[in-house]
Request: fold
Amino acid sequence: MEIMFIPWESVEAKMLLQKCVVVLICVSLFWKIIRYMCDLLKVEKEPITILITGQIGYALVPMIARGAMLGPDQPVILHMLDIEPAAESLKGVKMELVDAAFPLLKADVVEACKDVNIAVMVGGFPRKEGMERKDVMSKNVSIYKAQASALEQHAARDCKVLVVANPANTNALILKEYAPSIPEKNITCLTRLDHNRALGQISEKLNVHVGDVKNVIIWGNHSSTQYPDVNHATIATGNGETPVRQAVNDDNWLNNEFISVVQQRGAAIIKARKLSSALSAASSACDHIRDWVLGTPKGTWVSMGVYSDGSYGIQSGLIYSFPVTCEKGEWKIVQGLKIDEFSREKMDNTAQELIEEKSLAKSCLT
Ligand code: LMR
Reply:
């Protein structure tokens, strides 16, 4: 038998090394077990049911299904509703949704309005080239009266409604009338599209990233009388924030061309595409709901058409676009902004158009 002599230091070193390896293996095993347990215990969020009506739904649905509206871990159930002639094409959209294999999408085949948590009302008679929103009023008020009644009967009591179809503010008002059990603060219309358009125009003018521009305001109606206001808007620079008016340094452009480009953008798109905006409308509808549900970033406001409470001297009882901040699923009108004479006139002008639309809508319904 041969006995080898191993020096004491070397035995110590080997044992230490062995101990380290054992400890590392234990830690890694322990970590794997913890992760496995977490996966087993992971509670999936309850799905949110979203109703989408109308033709921009085709652009909107993939954005929602990818998590652009409610976040990447929020399962959704989509209910899609369209007018009878579109029923066949809706079947095609349903097939495509299955084929796209969106992991957040849960299948459901109940009636369109049943237990809906969020309703994006895009459906309506579309505006064609050369038509003003008022021209489509009589066709749309009856559609909205019917859809409001369906929501009233079947939707979740705290359902959040976004009206996109034109005349969006007045359609939202009709919906409010005929779905009285949905709280008025839950009925809104889309002016985020105009808000984003205003941000886009400023970013192009200044050649800055659109994400560095914030706090423009769309006041009033989603129509050619809306007032895109940059008096409180800023751009982020290396040294903090600079007022947009100062950065642009061209009041003539801001008070004229900028305003009319934003006001007429929808009509310009219809002229070019022979169809109304779909991609940007869908994307801004996602922005509207996302900020409403998940909150606006600190120090930033957005524009939403909401039920007027008399803020800024705007007659209550209109759905009017205001600057709002959102937190915990609730919007709040930004208060205390200074309004100059130029703005006052434009804000009142668009309010006046809404008052007229409201009485026209009422007359269409009687
Ligand atoms: C838009 O602004 O692009 C849409 O509301 C379409 C329209 O009718 O103006």
Remarks:
- The CA atoms of residues 24 and 30 lie 10 Å apart.
- The chain is about 45% helix and 15% strand.
- The first helix runs from residue 8 to 41.
